[in-house]
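Continuing the batch. This is chain 6 of the set; chains 1 through 5 are on the previous pages. Same settings as before, nothing changed between runs. Recording input and output for traceability.
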Amino acid sequence: MPQYSDLLDNLERPFLDAVRNAIARRGLRQQDVANSMAAYGLVIHDTGISKSIATKGPRRALRLAEVLAIASILGIGLDDFIPPPIECPTCSGRPPQGFTCNQCGTARHT
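Output for chain 6:
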């Protein structure tokens, strides 16, 4: 089972790096991103953006709606950040025909 630090390394950090790079590449200010998020009905201040994408110190967690809005605003595709599914050690994702794996819940019906 993946640990939180693995998820942070493999999911959050690359996404936040992409956000920081897109902001810099487009010459935007964090206030510009915060203002654009209002169109999505999200209220976040530039300091909230700053704390969310910080590389050091405590970070403000982004809500899913905020991640989706930021990705849309900055043109970041989220598919690049979705890891492949973890293969079940019991059935390898393919239980016998007509059965459901008790370990991962994958079902294979006739």
